[in-house]
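Minutes, project check-in
Item: structure for the 182-residue chain
Input as provided by the requester:
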Amino acid sequence: MLETAVVGHRGAVGISLVAGGRITTQQSVVLLPGSALRIHVDDLRRVASERPKVLEHLLGYSETLCTHCAQTALCGVRHELERRLACWLCLACDTLDRNMLPVTHDYLSAALGLHRAGVTRALIRFEELGLIRKMRGILQVDDHKRLQQMACCCYGVIASAYTSLDHPACMQQLPTPARQIT
């Protein structure tokens, strides 16, 4: 496993299917309990053809998600562990709209393709600097602004890509073929 993006409650997975793809190329892992909406691809394609703004929004989000994935790949080969980890923590907080992240050192090391010992050392350093607090299975980000300053430039690229997305009102009410999953 190697994580390429963090998708939160404003995001979507499986978007390639809307544009005519036949299979998804990623696996999704749920970190937080909650609910999600699910819509069959044929129903979503129909809605997208009836409501071009829905398709426009999904394609815009898909482009932003591709930017996120590409920047994450570049980050993995270009930036040092602490800066990558700070970037990931900031993006996760932004995406989830919370400062409590239910992640373990093992998860972070696997998702970022890093040695667990290095992740642990970096988290200890972040805690000593007052940026985070570690608890069993949970990381609390206490100083998001200073953590952003420690993050590599990838944070700014990815965060600004999401910020530039326009969330039209039509996405707030999905059509009835969507069903909620808990």
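Outcome recorded: The longest strand covers residues 132-135.
No further action items on this chain.
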